[in-house]
């Protein structure tokens, strides 16, 4: 077996996972793709299914399981958080507003990093804050590039429309004015992972009195530049 680690069962499990990378496989397909004996392929696939590294589709075929996505997201988040501190601090310093980074968590979004405005009236979103996916420029960014079915589901009860999200995709940034909280405006742009999937929005937020009712005119370019720096950091780390 190529790339042998000397631990046979792990090598075989890795071969099973690699075979599923190209798509769903029946047990016969798995045997053909891996060269493993049928009982061995079955035993390993079922064991990996127990650990959620393998799952089944509607036709009962083996597919890669949710645990792999969770581990990949955790690894990506570590790299993202490592790069986020100086980028958010720079964004705060050049805009004069609080800067945040969010990740999606189910039907909510969570603030995973922030650089607070040093003085004056602030829009504080502490790290760990959980906010809805139904309002705010960061929520718009997280939904705008979703698959059609998830996008449609996400729009139900949202404070923004499909037309607004179309504009977000066209501009590659979003703004909100009093959408999540009265008196607060924000601007967000997407951070993309190595596969070009949107993994997080980077945002600035503050009172409408400072950001005006057209906050994108003031801060979109700075936020887009910050998102591009984080995107580059993730791609270099992959």
Explain what the structure shows.
The chain is α+β, with helices and mostly antiparallel strands and 238 residues long. 49% of the residues lie in helices and 20% in strands. It is built from 9 helices and 8 strands. Strand 7 (184-192) and strand 8 form a beta hairpin. It is elongated, with a radius of gyration of 22 Å.
Features:
6-stranded antiparallel sheet; alpha+beta; transcription regulation
Helix content: 40-55%
Q: Specify the structural class.
A: alpha+beta
The main β sheet shows up as: 6 strands, antiparallel
> Whole-Å distance between the termini?
26 Å
Give the ordered list of helices and strands: HHHEEHEEEHHHEEEHH
**Can you tell me the overall shape?**
elongated
Instruction: Determine the strand fraction and express it as a percent band.
Output: 15-25%
How is the largest sheet built, in terms of strand order?
Answer: 5-4-3-8-7-6
Beta strands, count = 8
**What is the CA-atom radius of gyration, in angstroms?**
22 Å
Domain IclR-ED: 67-236
Organism: Streptomyces synnematoformans
Keywords: DNA-binding, Transcription, Transcription regulation
Domain HTH iclR-type: 7-66
């Amino acid at each position: 077996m190529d790339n042998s680690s000397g631990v046979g069962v792990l090598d075989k499990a890795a071969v099973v996972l690699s075979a599923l990378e190209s798509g769903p496989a029946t047990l016969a397909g798995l045997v053909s793709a891996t060269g493993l004996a049928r009982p061995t392929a079955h035993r390993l696939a079922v064991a990996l299914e127990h650990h959620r590294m393998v799952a089944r589709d509607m036709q009962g075929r083996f597919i890669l399981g949710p645990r792999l996505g969770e581990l990949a997201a955790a690894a990506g988040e570590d790299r993202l958080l490592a790069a986020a501190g100086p980028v958010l601090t720079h964004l705060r310093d050049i805009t004069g507003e609080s800067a945040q980074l969010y990740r999606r968590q189910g039907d909510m979004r969570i603030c995973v990093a922030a650089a607070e405005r040093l003085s004056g009236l602030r829009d504080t979103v502490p790290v760990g804050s959980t906010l809805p996916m139904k309002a705010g420029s960061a929520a718009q960014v997280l939904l705008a590039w979703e698959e059609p079915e998830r996008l449609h589901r996400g729009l139900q009860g949202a404070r923004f429309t499909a037309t607004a999200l179309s504009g977000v995709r066209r501009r590659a940034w979003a703004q909100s004015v009093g959408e999540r909280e009265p008196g607060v405006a924000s601007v967000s742009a997407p951070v993309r992972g190595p596969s070009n999937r949107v993994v997080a929005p980077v945002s600035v937020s503050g009172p409408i009195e400072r950001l005006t009712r057209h906050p994108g005119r003031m801060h979109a370019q700075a936020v887009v530049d910050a998102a591009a720096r984080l995107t580059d950091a993730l791609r270099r780390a992959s």
